[in-house]
Amino acid sequence: MIAQTGYAAMAVAFVFCLYSVAAGWLGARRRRADLIESAERSVLAVVFLIIFATGLLVHSLVTHNFSIEYVAHYTSSTLSPGYCITALWGGQAGSLLFWVLVLSLFTLVVVLQNQNRNRQLMPYVTSLLMGIVGFFLTALLFAANPFKTISPVPLDGQGLNPLLQNYWMASHPPFLYGGYVGQSVPFAFAMAALITGRLDIAWIKAIRRWTLISWLFLTVGILQGSYWAYIELGWGGYWAWDPVENASLMPWLASTAFLHSVMVQEKKGMLKTWNMVLVIAAFSLSIFGTFLTRSGVVSSVHSFAQSPIGSYFIVFLAAQIGFSIYWLLKRKKDLAPEERLESFISRESSFLFNNVFFLVICLTVLVGTMFPILSEWVTGSKVTVSAPFFNRVATPFAVGLLLLTGICPLIAWRKAGIKNLKRNFLTPAIFALIVTVVAALSGYFEFYFLMFLYSSLFMLATVLLEFIKGTGARIAMTRESTLIAFYQLIRRNKRRYGGFIIHAGVALLFIGVGTSSVYQLEQEVTLAPNQTLHVREHTLKFHELVTNQDSHKEVILAKLEVLRGAQHIGFLVPERHFYHNSEQPTTEVAIRKFWDRDLYVILAGWDEQGNATFKVFVNPFIGLLWIGGIIMGLGGMIVLLPAYTPQTITAKSPAKGSVPLMQQT
After folding, report:
1. Nearest of 165, 145, 194, 12 to residue 76 by alpha carbon
2. 3-state SS class at 112
3. Is the pTM value of this prediction over 0.85?
């Protein structure tokens, strides 16, 4: 009964979607306020029905209703309740239902936000968002039904993929889905602006916060996925240029480029067509990434099995791109720039070059990701593109992008003079050069690493100098303490200084990426009990292998003591897990974190005599990657906070009545 009810809820939601699309479009064309209102009210019905259907599936997962095929495939009687819930996005159909849930909730928020604004755009925004919801419901109803029943009913389920039984997988996929789904809102507003011809700044203001939300979700999701790969997959790294990793990176690159170039449109009325293209590209790449994950055309630890659902996504993607190109061409004249580029040494041109570098990196990732698929279609044999290709092509542009990121916010508009360049960039350039030279003299002399280090330090120095200048100016003006002045500086211009915090995080992240990638130390060794391995200034002493059993897995673990000289530092315990319901073993790495490195140990094998084989990595300064990511997230949240508006107080005068006064804080 639950299966039939859940399917019926999705089917009725689909009908409401179709009605909302038609009513919104007709209401806008015929200027029928009643139809527009009805279309928006239908969104509420869709949200209720999707929440109801999702609730039924979650209830079935938690209560082990194995009559539903999805439940039987992704849960078992021994799976903990927490992982039963995360099984909602552990498989094809459940993750699509979760996608629809998030998108319908986002649509409802958009409708409620715009009850009294953007009324010319909203009928089309509602129709487009409901059309996207309708597409995903079509896929659920006809290709990936999460409520499909199974007979005979198995006594137990297969259980969740062991790789997904990790606490980071409780949050990594929802954040990525939030980022993917969030791209739908800017796309809907952009298309509504094209359809109505209302191409002023209003649609930009309507989507700025939504683009930031999507960008922040993607940023956090990518970083969480990297950390999950680092601690769970057991290969010593965090990013392998895997096709599904690339699928999340591409819309992130497009939306990051938009967040930079949109400032030029707001200030100068330039790059209008380009910004439209970036919004459309970010959404298209989100759909493309979903296609890669769910079609089975690529091999990845992240992707789902081969599925006919891929054809649905190809048709939808082709229709969406064709629809977008049609309206772009139709409004081409209306998107003409209001001003022209006056100088290549200006903020406008630096943002333009910034976007070019983003585009080149994005195209590199796209070509490298698609090349195995295209080669198989053309020649019949799959030619794999590995990490060296991506690193070789993307690294020079990444270095240039870091330099431009330090330059863009501080260089003058229109045309920068020598005075402006010296004031803003001479000190950061000298500081970065000195530190880079010191690093080279200390033995860190790999060319691309030094380029990464210099550009990252340059960007970090520009940010710090800007905070120092701003804080000093406030202290001189208000006599505030340093901490209060620093706080007020950020509070009164969250967008500017939150962006600077994001840039500081990016700089630290890339220093961590460069150092840990180029100077990673790797050793593989087989040790008998009580034998030792020397790794830099540390000694690893192998004590013993231990076997443990519980109700759903067998655990093999090795106990290693970490010593510095004769001093005991602690223990490292790498493990291998063998789940009874799965033939796929998992690796639980052991990591000892120091301020300047991670000591990372994998149990690679063992024999009957109790000897164990270990892979040992030393990852220098990798902690800067995670610290930088946290700072980026913090900066993103600051930018999302409401803009500062000076408060007013009303003072009454016997002669003149009320006089508003600015309250200084």
Report:
1. 165
2. helix
3. yes
